[in-house]
Write the structure tokens for this entry.
Amino acid sequence: MSWIGKIGRVGRIVEPASDPPEERVAPPTGVCGSLQLRHVDAGSCNGCELEITGAFSSVYDAERFGARVVASPRHADGLIATGVVTRNMHQPLLNTLKAVPEPRVVIAVGDCACNGGVFAQGYGVVGSVADVIPVDVQVPGCPPTPQQIITALRTVTGR
Amino acid sequence: MSAATDLPGLTATALQVVAVVAGAPFVVGGMRQVRARLEGRAGGGVGQPWRDLRKQLRKQQITPAGTTVVFGFAPAVVAGTTLLIAAILPLIALGSPLDSAADLFGVVGLLFLGTVALTLAGLDTGTAFGGMGSSREITIAALVEPTILLAVFALSVPGHSANLAAIVSATADHPGQLVSPGSLLAFVALAIVIIAETGRLPVDNPSTHLELTMIHEAMILEYAGPKLALVEWASGMRLTVLLGLVANLFLPWGVAGAHPSVLAVLIGLVAISAKVAVLAGVLATGEVFIAKLRYFRIPELLAGSFLLALLAVTASYFFATPT
Amino acid sequence: MTTALDDSPTVPAPDQGLTAARQARGQAVLSGGVTAALGVVGVAFGLSAVFGQSWHLRIGWLLPLVGVVFDLGPLGGFFVAATGGVSIAVGIYAVGYAQREHWAAFTLVMLPLFVAAMLLVPAAGSVTTFLLAWELMAGASLVLVLSEHRREAVRSAGVFYAVMTQLGFVAILLALVVLSAAGGGDAFATISAHSGAVSAGTRTAVFLLTLMGFGSKAGLLPLHAWLPRAHPEAPSPVSALMSAAMVNMGIYGLIRIDQQILGPGPNWWGLTLMVFGALSAVFGVLQASVATDLKRLLAYSTTENMGLITLALGAAALLSSYGAHQVAAMAMTAALLLILSHAAFKTLAFLAAGSVLASTGLRDLDKLGGLARRMPGTTVMFGIAALGASGLPLGAGFVGEWLLLQSLIHSPHNNNTLLALMMPLSVGAVALTTGLGIAAMVKAFGVGFLARPRSAAAEAAAEAPVSMLAGMTLGAAACAVFAVAPVALSPVLRQVLAALPTVGGNEAGPALGGYLRLPGIPGSMSPGLIAAALVIAVLVALGLGRWGWRRRPVAAAAALWACGADSLSSKMQYTATSFAEPLQRVFDNVLQPETDVEVTHFAESQYLVEKVTYRTTLADPVERRLYTPVVRAVTTWAQWVRRAHPGSVHLYLAYGALGLLVVLVISR
């Protein structure tokens, strides 16, 4: 019951929204403000995952721009892929993309997903995400900040 | 037959169905917003589920290999049963032409028909998660049925009938019996039933990503595009319709009569919207304070609600107000 | 599946094989045709008896001293018509089934004889005729159960069934003999006329004995254990006849003897019927929901439905004894409707299960699956039966259940603690039964027929031949009529109710028109209108789903989402055991599963495990807790009595002479 008081005292903790980004990718189905993404970890160190979790937390709140993470690729508009593509995750990444209904987008988050990052020459590595599947939006950074991730999402949602 | 020429009643019923279809995504959006604000976030807005639905309707339809027509038609069956329930219930006005065709037992049966359709679809996918979701859903449905029928029994005692118009008008005529022990116990039992049937916390977490904690979500993991939109819409409509049922059973003021005027219909619409909005807000607020129960604790919760419903019936017998 | 009749493998010459096939077809057509014809005769006689034409027949020379008396009234006619209807569907079905399963000659001959015996039981007009017809029916069914006697499971089931049937018969024999002695005559008409002179003690004794005997035949707790043993092992058409027609004879006996002849009983009679009915219903459906053998599931479902019917009967009797005749009439109509709808959907279910068994050789749900694409007709039929069994709207069992619930909630409760307690508990029992019944039927249909096959035999399934599908279609048509147009039964039900004055027969009963209306009580329902409205609502929903179709990319088929893996094997699907596991856990204390874990270590080192075997058995707890001690006690007592049988012929002659002397002295 002390929670009610706590909720009242803490109030709103979300960061104020910045201006929407200029360049955009057209929203996949033409509906602005609705983007469901399936997260795939193709071989990351989980640094980008923590930042993505931060982006969807109460402080940065990516949901207010219409983005949401879903459990099944069939429910998703696209993939949000992190990490360099390892040999074991090569086929699963392709299978996951195949399971997403058209029209779909792929967002690559982090240096590893964009260009291999620090793991580019590894022996267990196939390549970056762009080498394996067509990528629509790239978010460079090691790891990128939640604000950068949200800006990238907003280029797709249009909100 | 008089029902066919009963134009005000027919109009009110049609308006009910349209209101449920249009308003259900707003109810879901409103609940998400209440939750977001209590968590200190901004939230996606009340219109977010509508945007999601419109988007899903424009996506590709996928038929997974190995599924049959059961998987294909289940979303339409779930949505259809919910639409029919919306047409039967006295949400805006009492004079639904289907009121004498189905009473509260019929409504409960239609509700379970929708559950069975979705459960069979989950089994039809042939995936492990689909079977898991179906197994859990049907266990909860089986254990919830005694409570729901006993609650119907308790509600039918004052009006001497299980037909909905009779129950609502009996409550409207004798508001004093709302605070009788039978009525209060029936309300609590019905609240637990609705939480279990619509898959809200503490029975099921509608926003979980962990398949092993899913009940309803696990059955629909294979649905994509328009069928997914229909399933999500049907879930929202179920929640709206059940909240409307509880609202009009226990707070029947504002419901238009059997042959309503245009003004009465509008008042009815505003009243039911307000009541459902308030109940949805209370439910969402409650959800912020509870965690999901471990699956094998749910039968204990349902057994408790069964006991409450049984006490509700016996209380309404022994404390019956003479008519 | 049947094994070959001779052990040495022979390859018959082609035209020899053809003649043998033609001969088998001719025999099957004859057997099935006679069965169906008997069914038509039964329906004709039954319906005519219901609508007022009463049939009397006395054959004086057939039995010494008393003769054989047949007396068909509305009540008997109802059951004869129901049995006849089931037999028509089963007869047509058996034409194809007998050929598929290579039935032996004696099975083909016994099938029509069994049906004839079943048609005679409700027509019996005197105690001796009744007992004679009863034994004929029991004997014929036993022979049919033992059709595949070369299998061990069938033999043990047959012995179990024979013993329980005979014990039940002894109870019925005692009851009817006591009744006829007290009633002053052998014919039912005589006993009815003098039923007022029967003392209260005799009534109680007769009621309890008939409850035991007829209850056992109907499959009520605790004497139900023969049902889930015998019905799965019998050939499927025989299972259908037994489950849909023979168990009704137990209910007929209860209604005829305890309600019609003995007249209105004290209120504890109705209470006892309600309690045993509720217990049978809940226990039966619980066992069905955790059963993995398809036919065992259906057999336990029979116990459940008979429990519901007995509950309705008991409610009618109890309400009548408290003067609530209108509500009692409703409960009695519910019981009659439930009998008919159960006959329809249970026949259909067993015939569909037989089709699956004939095609795949499997009864185990854990190995079935994927039959929807391979056997679409059978799948649709089983779906209709499962919908009827689950008591949902648009199912055959919905109207009867609705009437039962309405009669329970409208019972008068002012100043009546017994009714105020019994009715809510009964509603709770009926509701739990419905819920678990839904779980059981969803499991049977979803696991058995949908998704992908779980074994090679299921993958090789092929659709049933035309005669089997025709028999099933008849059952499906009956289910459809009961589901949306029960008005067709209204005249029959009214006539039968009028013949039962002690359970509300003097009242009008519910009006089964386009709308079902309850006389004098607010409450109505229209199954046909619900069905039509549901179809419209589903079409509207489909329309909603089409919104925005112009902007959609082309639809596609895709592989199942396997969480990134390349494919899902059919072993990854949920089985019937896993589907029912949460329910089994919840009802652990009632089901009492036996778990066996066996760990085998390597010979070289007992720290390394080679193999772990896990076995769970769900035996019937009533059998384990009640029958086993009784059997053990009887065996011990029998061993003790054996001391009197040393083997000396002189001693046995002395026993015989002594016994004869005693009988002569007593009968003097």
About this structure: The longest strand of chain C covers residues 609-617. Chain C has a mean pLDDT of 92. Chain C has 24 helices and eight strands. Chain C touches chain A at residues 551, 553, 556, 558-559, 561-562, 564-566 (CB under 8 Å).
